[in-house]
Amino acid sequence: KDENMENCFYECCERCVGSLPWASLIATILLYMGVALFCGCGHEALSGTVTILQNYFEVMRAPGGVLDVFTIIDILKYIIYGLAAGFFVFGVLLLVEGFFTTGAIRDLYGEFKITACGRCLTAFLMVLAYLFFLVWLGVTAFTSLPVFMYYNVWSMCKNISSVEGTNLCLDLRQFGAVTIAEEKKVCIGSEKFLRMCDSNELDLTFHLFVCALAGAGAAVIAMVHFLMALSANWGYLKDASRMQKYEDIKSKEEQELHDIHSTRSKERLNAYT
Q1: CA 232, CA 273: separation in Å to the nearest integer?
Q2: Is 62 helix (H, G, I), strand (E, B) or coil?
Q3: Which of 80, 97, 187, 265 could cross-link with 169 by S-S, CB 3.0 to 4.6 Å?
Q4: Which residue ranges run through the membrane (predicted)?
Q5: Domain that holds residue 96
Q6: CA angle 228, 218, 177 (to 5 degrees)
Q7: What pTM was computed for the model?
Q8: Residue 213 domain flag
Q9: How many Cβ atoms sit within 10 Å of the Cβ of residue 120?
């Protein structure tokens, strides 16, 4: 029974562990693609938003250190820089951990011993990956807001003939981009609205935000993959640690039985002589 249990454990490790590095590699590639798409397209979309605000809504940057929409956009750009750098390092750590854990399990019954430090590192990365998963969910929800707003403006430009003659205006005060005292709006049929619809800034900025939203969604999927891989690694490490303890106890019992048989043999031999 013990031998069957041991052979079953070996077969499970050989079948399941081999897929772990590929899962970590796929998740890392997906994470890098999502982060690159979100950061690159998001940065350019924010720059396009600045151009639209300055050229068509005539919003000017506030003097001094006043917090305005342009300052918020600059802060968002710095956040994008931090996301790009931070998740590059985080992806490398998760990829290395996935390959290291796989190699550790394969070499478990050699000289390698699973330590508590390795299990604690895997548990820490699991918690970190879960927190980043929640972060990317929030980023995805936040990115959907400009996509929705730009889609409304873009659809109005594409269907300008159907809304012609109506008294519709795009007022930045409704979006919190300017203060209540400032009246920055563009109405349908005005020259500014027509120039904005004919320009490339609106169409390009809208599609850049859509690509940024897709990148954030890809990052969410990548974090789910990492959570699955880390959970599998944790389970394998835990089972391997138990099996290692079982092997140690088994070896001690076999050694004790061997010592007992040796002692009894010596006693019989002495009694015979």
Answers
A1: 61
A2: coil
A3: 187
A4: 20-38, 78-100, 121-151, 204-237
A5: 24-248
A6: 130
A7: 0.76
A8: yes
A9: 10
